[in-house]
Structure formats: structure tokens, C-alpha cells
Amino acid sequence: MIIGSWQAVLTLALLLFLILPMARLSKAYRLAVLLAMFLVALIPLSTGLTLAGLLRGLTDDLAITSVLWLVVASLIRLGMIPAMGANQKWPLWLCFAVLGLVLYPAALGLGMLDTYGWGYQPRGLIIAIALIMALMFCISSGMGVLLLSVATLAFLLDVKPSDNYWDYLLDPFIVLYSLGALLRGAYSFLKRGPVSAEA
User: Fold this and answer.
1) What are the boundaries of each domain within the chain?
2) In 3-state terms, what secondary structure has residue 17?
């Protein structure tokens, strides 16, 4: 699928861009590095796949929320939008950690509920996400509203091969990242008080 292929290219390019150390580079050089990472993602391999295609084969497509989060983090790194404070990140981490705890234990066979099945007839799940978006709006978490609303719109437009709403909202990486950020933030708070972290 063409959309999936380009999503894989975008994902790998942004991941490489965010991993590389660039603290001393100017905005122009950082942009050049980002463009170079797109070329790296398109490197053809002997198998006929690109480097991005190989990554997609190993991990499948990321959720829309993860891709959008990578885009926002990259824009922050390029200096195009301001960095988020810790008070803006906690609601995001908590939201995706809780959603992950609702989905993944049941999807792995723990418990009696088939929470993954909720994503195939997702009217109730969409209502629940709408309530979460309303809460995010009330606490001024524009990033949370953006991630969840774009993922919902992408599901309604059927932009991914999956017919399950969960696949637009979550993947293991955003859940593990959120859980890790919560644990790290809680540890830092207990040890030294609240500290800011990168997006």
C-alpha cells in the first residue's frame, strides 16, 4: 500500500533525525540532516526492499498518534514550534499508558474481555476517546486533542490497511514510551522535584 510505504519512510527518517545528536547544529543544518534521513530511509537493499520497508516488515506500521508525535518532536527539534513543558507531557503519557493497559493485557489473553475487538465496532470506543479529548481540551492539552482527533479522522477516512480503531490510536512503542516516561518522571519528581524532558 502506497500510504503505508510512505508512512514507513517518514517514520524511519524522523526516528533517525531524533536519535542523532545535533545540539550544536544550526536550524538550517538540522533541516539538511532531516532531508538526508529521508534519503537514507529510501536506500535500496539487496532484498528489493528499502531500508524503511525492512523496518516496516519488522515492526509493521506505527499508529497515527505515534507518527504525529514524531512529526511534532521533529518540528520542536527544528525550532519551528516551542517545546512542551512537563505539565503538557504528563497528560499525554498518562493517556497512552492507560489506553495501553486497557488494550494490551487483554489482547495477550489476560482477563475475560476482548478489548481489541472493541476496535472493530468502535462506536463506544470513539465516544470514550471523545470524552478523553474533551478532558484534554479542558486541561489545555492541545497536543492530546491533536493526536487523538487526527487518529480518529484517519480511521474514519480508512487511511491504514487495518479496520481496527485501536491500530490508529496505539502501538506498543507509544505505550512503552509513555510508561517509561511516567516512571522516569515520577522517579525524578521523588528524587529532585519535577524536571522537563524532551518530547
Assistant:
1) 1-61, 83-199
2) helix
